[in-house]
Automatic annotation (TrEMBL):
Lineage: superkingdom: Bacteria
Cited PANTHER family: S-LAYER PROTEIN (PTHR38340)
Keyword Secreted: yes
Annotated GO MF terms: calcium ion binding
Keywords from the UniProt entry: Secreted
Annotated organism of origin: Stanieria cyanosphaera (strain ATCC 29371 / PCC 7437)
Subcellular location: Secreted
Organism placement in taxonomy: Bacteria, Bacillati, Cyanobacteriota, Cyanophyceae, Pleurocapsales
Name used for this protein in its record: Hemolysin-type calcium-binding region
SUPFAM superfamilies: beta-Roll (SSF51120)
Amino acid sequence: MSILSGNDLNNNISGTIGNDKIAGLGGDDKLAGLDGNDNLIGGNGNDNLIGGNGNDTLWSGDGDDTLSAGAGDDYLDGGKGHDYLDGGSGNDFLRGNAGHDYLRGGAGNDTLHGGFGNDTLHGGFGDDILNGGAGNDTFVFDNVRQGVDQVEDFQVGIDTIRLEGIAQGVVEVLQVGNDTLIKADGNDLAVLIGITNYDVNNIVFV
């Protein structure tokens, strides 16, 4: 494994085709793991972490950071700050942690946890598990055939379902046992676990 480290300046560090550990430390850093199963640690500053191919672990630390995992089954942690996390392809785990974060799962069966703050969760293609955590969270769906997502902790009147590019006329909201099922154009789109008092008028259409 290659171990690379920056300093308190703004660093641009790329790894190897093997397994790398890269720490940015201070400054606004750009860290790229390339191939291999990499461990990227942003540290302080507003950092840009790019995992590349492989099963990567991306830790942002303090600052408003951008984490892009690429291909592979990856783990992304936003740390503090208002962060953007993109899992790319693969079955990924995204944790926003503190701050108002945007979590995009991408392709694959992903798990997204917003953590603290008012977060936006977009599972993408695949059957995803979405948990907003504390705050006023928004769950985004933009394709009627993207898979069936489970929203674990939806709170009516606090959290929001937002459908982008999906007409209200093709949307159904059904009660299935103790849960709410949202369908679009005949396809199951999302299940709101434990929610029994939700209807189509609560949805935001964009």
